[in-house]
Every structure is written in structure tokens, then in C-alpha cells.
């Protein structure tokens, strides 16, 4: 028997659960702190990405229009030696689509894009980002960890976002006092190498530092 899932907002945590990209608009509901798009990568794509040597993982930091993401990432993959093929195309197309979706959600025409290969603890403290909102998608490795905390301390219950599932998180500049915190998973010394896409809205690219 197939169980149908519907997009919804959990009032206890402020987390919305989306089954379509359109449902990411839950982020605009007053009591929403984050929206998780419940999707899974195809096994062949994930196997390809997980098997890549870390030095072939694409990485970049740039500010650009969503329409330019595909060309930029093709150049990055070429420079990094990421093997050509349908799986590489899938990665590039997905990052470009997420940039377009996120820009539409935030009403901006530019985004700051970071695609990083991470083998350290990165940002291991639970926190709220000092911006309006952020989209994070972990393509390889352990996903972002989230949890509710009323006093800013480490959450007692921690949830790890699934690999390949994008999450849109409200930041401090949204102007809400939600208590959902997040962090990068502590992986230093484990030998794990994550590949993480981070998108931030940019209103004026000339003012980006």
C-alpha cells in the first residue's frame, strides 16, 4: 500500500515539510523557521558522487544570477577534473534549479553560491545565520543537523537532514524569534568528505564583501 504524504508545517518545531519545490513557499508562513524538501537522490547518482576522489569534487564561491549557475559550474567541474557524464550533468542541473527556486522564494535576482568539499567540523556550534534565509543541500556525506533550543544551548533532540534533501532556513534578519538552530555535523577525523551547496539571497551584488 502506498502512503501519500502532504506538505505540512509542524507547529511544535516550526519546521515545514515539502514534497514539491513549490511547497518550499511554506517558509513565508508566520510560524515557519525552516522548510525541508523531502526528496532522495537516485542510487546511481549517489553512488557516482560518493565514489569520486575528493580532489575531483567541484568547489566554488561566487555571486551570480541563477541563470548563470549552469555555465559557471560546468567551468568549475572542468577545472576540478570532475568526470563528464549524465551524473555530472545531474549535479549541475540540480544546483542551477535550486538557485532559481531559492531566488524566486526570496524575490532576488542574484545569489551567493558556495559549493564546498568539507572534511572538517566546519561550523560545529548550533546557531542561527545572520542573514534573511539560507538554502543548504548536502549532496554527499552527512547532512546539516537541526534542533529546537529555547535558551540557545545545544538542542536536546538533534535531527540530521537526509543527504540530497534541500532545507531552507530562516536567518536572524528575517525578524522572527524562532528557536530552531542548526550546525554542520562534526566529522573531523572520520575520513568523511561532504559536498555541500549553500545559497544566500543577494539584493545588491556591488555591496557583497
Automatic annotation (TrEMBL):
Pfam families: DUF1826
InterPro entries cross-referenced by the UniProt entry: DUF1826 (IPR014955)
The protein, known as: DUF1826 domain-containing protein
Amino acid at each position: 500500500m502506498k502512503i501519500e504524504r502532504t506538505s505540512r508545517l509542524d507547529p511544535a518545531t516550526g519546521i515545514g515539510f515539502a514534497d514539491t519545490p513549490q511547497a518550499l513557499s511554506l517558509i513565508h508562513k508566520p510560524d515557519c523557521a525552516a522548510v525541508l524538501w523531502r526528496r532522495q537522490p537516485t542510487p546511481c547518482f549517489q553512488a557516482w558522487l560518493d565514489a569520486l576522489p575528493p580532489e575531483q569534487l567541484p568547489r566554488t564561491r561566487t555571486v551570480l544570477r541563477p541563470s548563470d549557475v549552469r555555465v559557471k559550474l560546468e567551468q568549475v567541474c572542468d577545472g576540478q577534473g570532475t568526470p563528464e557524464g549524465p551524473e555530472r550533468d545531474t549535479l549541475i542541473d540540480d544546483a542551477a534549479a535550486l538557485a532559481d527556486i531559492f531566488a524566486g522564494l526570496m524575490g532576488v535576482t542574484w545569489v551567493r553560491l558556495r559549493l564546498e568539499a568539507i572534511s572538517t567540523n566546519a561550523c560545529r556550534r548550533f546557531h542561527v545565520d545572520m542573514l534573511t534565509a539560507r538554502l543548504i543541500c548536502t549532496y554527499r556525506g552527512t547532512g546539516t543537523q537541526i534542533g529546537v533550543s529555547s535558551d540557545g544551548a545545544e538542542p536536546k533532540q538533534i535531527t540530521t537532514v537526509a543527504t540530497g534533501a534541500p532545507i531552507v532556513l530562516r536567518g536572524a534578519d528575517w525578524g522572527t524569534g524562532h528557536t530552531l538552530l542548526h550546525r554542520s555535523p562534526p566529522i573531523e577525523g572520520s575520513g568523511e568528505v561532504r559536498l555541500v551547496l549553500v545559497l544566500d539571497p543577494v539584493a545588491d551584488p556591488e555591496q557583497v564583501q
